[in-house]
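Bench notes, afternoon.
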Amino acid sequence: MPSRKTKTQEVTNAPSQSRPEPSSEVTTFFPFARYTSLVGVHTSLLAFSALLLPTTSTSLITRGVSFLPNFVPGERPTRDVVQLLTEDPVRTVAWICAGASILQAWWAGWVRAWSLEQRNQAKSKGDAIPGNSEITRQKLERRNQDDQRTAALGKAASFTLAASVVFHVVTVLFGAPMTSHLLHTYLTSLLLAVLTVFPPAYTLGPPSLGPDSPSLVSRLTWVRLFAELSPRSPLERALVYPAVGAVVGNWVGAIPIGLDWERPWQAWPLTPAFGAVGGYIVGSLVALVVSATFAFAQVDRDHEASQQAQAKVAKNKKS
């Protein structure tokens, strides 16, 4: 009899012992369908704002009334798009900054909502079945999050403006004109700050220098993401990879300016600005591919582990 009881206990304990441990990639909330669709829309609108928004503003706003008398229905303007983009670099980069600011505010709002949803799901997994008090607490937390959204937006905007000044100084140290083309350089720095700094500042909060634990965690998170370049979740990849792509694209875009081709599109700072936008788009697509690959691989590993566990339980039952 004791041997039968021991054998029964081994069979009943086998499923719990062979159950696979949940990994961080599984527990991390990853809205693949929404993320994929929004990345496609976001990158497409960024490309549209960079290539077509400056040309549209030239024909409809800058020209104003003088453009309307020469307009003939059914005829298209004969001016080249490249000429429209290159005839006034300040205006072109300014309109790119305006379009990118609107799109980045929308994108950062969605990423912040993704982050809050991920935290709420992590809390709900650790709690029991929520009662009335738990439901009330969740409603109060949502209300506090709505109240904190405006404050977080103001802090992120202020931090982005401060980062644009830092980027301006760094750009001058890398060879940009120091006394001339100041507006050109600052608009490029502002564009780079909007692309790289605003989304993480709005999602994670700006890094704080306070001595308390939340400030320390915030600083270490920023160091891990943007100094060590080691994101650990799809959300962090959505913040880090596009930022790295924008910085690399901005730096690579400055290379054609030094060539003696004497083309209009070589005017400062057109190629760095378009390089930053292009690098950001490439980084966003790379983040999507990498996160999707890890997620699908983890699903496949979990499926194999569950099959092995079921086979082991069936084998123990037979024995």
